[in-house]
Structures are given as C-alpha cells and as structure tokens.
UniProtKB/TrEMBL annotation:
Designated name of the protein: Uncharacterized protein
Native species: Butyricimonas virosa
Length: 251
C-alpha cells in the first residue's frame, strides 16, 4: 500500500506551487525530494518513475532558492532561520551548489554569534539549531559546534524517554545526523554504542508516530491536520529503504 501511496503523492506534487505554502512547512518536502534524488542517482532506471535527476533537483531548488532569501532576514525567528540555513547545507551535500553552502554557513554563524559575540550562543534549543550545529561541524570542523550539538542531543534523549512527543520527528532527524556526523568523529566507542542503543529505543516510537500520520493521511487525505510534507518525506525514506533491500539482494 505504501508504495502505491508514495507514487500517487509524488505525481500529485508535480503540480504544486510551493511558493503558495508557508516556508516553515517546506523542509519535509525539500528532504523528500532530496531523498528521491539520492535514490534515483543510485538506481538510475528509476528515472522512468520519478523523472530525470535534473528535474528532481530543480524541484528541490525551488524551495532552496526561497530559503536563500529568507535566511538573510534577521527579523525572522532564529529557529526558522536555523532550519532554512541547515536545509541549504543539506542541499549542497547532494548537489554541489557552493552558493547554497556559503549562504547557509554565513547565516549559521550570524545566528549563533549575535551582536558580534566571540563565542557561540544558542538562541533556542530546538532540533533546527541542533541540525545547524551538526552541519557547521561537518563543513567547518568547528569542534564547539559538535560539543553544543551533543548537549542538545543529550537533553532531547532525556525528555523523549517519557511520553513527550513534541517535535519528535524533527529531533529524530537531528539525533541521527549528530550520530552520523559528529558522534563517529568525536565520541569514544562506549558513548557511540550508548547512542546507538538510544536510537534503537527511539526508533520504535518514531515508527509508531510515522505510521499514525500515514494512516490519518490515507483516511482523510489533505483535509486532515496531518503534515503532508512529513508524509511525503516518510514515504520517500521508506521507498529508498525498500529499493536498497530489493536491488542489493539481486547483486
């Protein structure tokens, strides 16, 4: 069912004008397209289903170009700007557009060093800020960014042990990014193992939240309160996993 749902949703999104959406709701759509781009780059015969790589990336860049403008607006809430900057750096990782990277990094340090501060300052303690710190660590090697991201991850893991949902999916992405980017380089082996155990624990809750969102979308469609962008991103990730399992077995 999920495969058919994803293909149907992907086709419907071809006609969507993302400029008519609130920009803070577009990150999941962007990452959904980046996931499809990565999938088709590995399995090029999927172009018959999803279109050529250029067209897929141009769809993602429609959102990224908007973020290029918004990320420079200092009057916007820091959390939103942090998300836009982190997303610009994510786009660069799959398609080397240096302009996106430079604007993302410049905005990041503008957010993290307000008023000309000589040390990093966290304007808020959100998943977007955590992703921003991880990307800054990855692209600049700034160890302080890695340390601060680690503190935010520890806090997030603490309150996700209860029934707290909050921004669970946002924190899941941030925690996975931290583990893959910072943890592998900075954490001792025993801490890496502990973090992996935490990810296994949290993955069960994340899967349930994702399943609930998909079920609600199937039942009510876009008239429901569910975030359609998140559904698109979830289904894209699952389709990528399914493709990996399918085609790796044939090798």
């Amino acid at each position: 069912m999920e495969k058919g749902l994803f293909y149907d949703l992907y086709d419907r999104l071809r006609e969507v004008n993302f400029r008519s959406y609130s920009p803070d709701k577009l990150s999941a759509y962007l990452h959904g397209y980046l996931t499809v781009y990565a999938m088709v780059r590995i399995y090029p015969w999927l172009e018959t289903e999803f279109g050529v790589l250029y067209d897929i990336h141009e769809r993602a860049k429609e959102i990224a170009r908007w973020y290029e403008v918004l990320v420079q607006k200092k009057e916007l809430p820091a959390n939103f700007r942090a998300g836009y900057a982190a997303d610009l750096m994510d786009v660069y990782q799959l398609y080397s557009d240096l302009d996106f990277l430079e604007k993302g990094v410049d905005a990041a340090y503008d957010i993290l060093t307000p008023w000309g501060s000589q040390k990093l300052v966290l304007p808020c303690r959100t998943s977007n800020i955590c992703r921003l710190l991880c990307n800054c660590y990855y692209f600049t090697g700034d160890a302080e960014c890695g340390e601060l991201a680690g503190k935010l991850v520890t806090e997030a893991l603490g309150y996700t042990r209860g029934n707290h949902r909050g921004d669970l999916l946002g924190w899941w992405d941030a925690i996975c990014l931290y583990d893959n980017v910072v943890g592998l380089m900075e954490l001792p082996i025993e801490e890496q193992e502990r973090l992996k155990e935490e990810r296994v624990r949290l993955a069960v809750r994340v899967r349930q939240v994702e399943d609930d969102m998909i079920e609600q979308f199937v039942r009510m469609g876009e008239v429901s309160s569910v975030d359609v962008g998140q559904v698109f991103y979830i289904l894209a990730k699952r389709e990528f996993v399914a493709c990996n399992e399918k085609y790796e077995k044939k090798e």
